[in-house]
Amino acid sequence: MMRLKVTFVLFLLILPLALANLRVGFYRRSCPNAESIVRAAVRRRLSRDKSITAALLRMHFHDCFVRGCDASILIDSNSKSSSEKDAGPNLTVRGFELIDEAKKALEATCPSKVSCADIITLATRDAVFLSGGPFYFVPTGRRDSLVSDPDEVKLPGPTLTVSEAFQAFRAKNMSMDDMVTLLGAHTVGVAHCSFFLDRITRPDPTMDRGLAAKLRSICGAASGTNPDPTAFLDQATPFAVDNQFFKQIGLKRGVMKIDQELANDPLSRRIVSGFAANATLFRTRFAQAMVKMGNIQVLVGKAGEIRKNCRVFNPRRRI
């Protein structure tokens, strides 16, 4: 009963954020089992790969911050043109086969009804929930992009300051609170050593010494088969969507520069402290921020298309 009450409260908080052209239950008539089909695919994958939650969160973010939440990140490159997948920041994005699996099942049940953009959004929501995070209602009705250009991929990097990173979020109509909240997704993330090596190869007063030693050990194990090892961004509960990330960076245990900066910078440290002290607050705000991000520059109505295969644009009809 308590879980239902919490879910209902989240619904009331999130609903005003939904765009007029997106709505909760968009597929209620056209594909009634759409959300359960996506959830089943996520559940199967998560049962054998707990890291898929981090992968989906990253995919969703990288998609929404380039052209909007339109599944442009899913398009494969071909001999004639490159796609967003070829852009440097996206070379380590993964989880595409999960989206393919969900799309195949949806096409078998209700052909050409559910967009790939909505599949990404729903799959990410379900992975968050199944990893201990909040359940939140997702407005759907997005359509898929007809463009995927690697030159348009310009994403905030891990070495930026808080104010520099915020410029990218503000351009998408996201607040500082939204940015800090969404970076809380690092609670289930990993980072390659190349992204933080400079912080552990020389003394860094903003990093806990014990963590620095641990990271040097991880990165020192690089080999021919694994030239760029990874480390968890949350050293406490790396597979759970919770507020531990904020507690960790408050103890100088942020792995990447931008993570630690959140706890140190006057622009963001109050928000970090609030989340570290209040798990419920983080869960509520994370749900709200995810819905808000999922509304960035969406295609609706007759714009774009509903792809049959998430990796390729539909064949153009001859007039």
TrEMBL record:
Region forming the signal peptide: 1-20
Catalytic activity of the protein: 2 a phenolic donor + H2O2 = 2 a phenolic radical donor + 2 H2O
Cofactors required: Ca(2+); heme b
Alphabetically ordered keywords of this record: Calcium, Disulfide bond, Heme, Hydrogen peroxide, Iron, Metal-binding, Oxidoreductase, Peroxidase, Secreted, Signal
Cofactor mode of binding and number, as noted: Binds 2 calcium ions per subunit. Binds 1 heme b (iron(II)-protoporphyrin IX) group per subunit.
Pfam families per record: peroxidase
Matching SUPFAM superfamilies: Heme-dependent peroxidases
Function statement: Removal of H(2)O(2), oxidation of toxic reductants, biosynthesis and degradation of lignin, suberization, auxin catabolism, response to environmental stresses such as wounding, pathogen attack and oxidative stress. These functions might be dependent on each isozyme/isoform in each plant tissue.
Family: Belongs to the peroxidase family. Classical plant (class III) peroxidase subfamily. Belongs to the peroxidase family. Ascorbate peroxidase subfamily.
Designated name of the protein: Peroxidase
The organism of origin for this protein: Gossypium arboreum
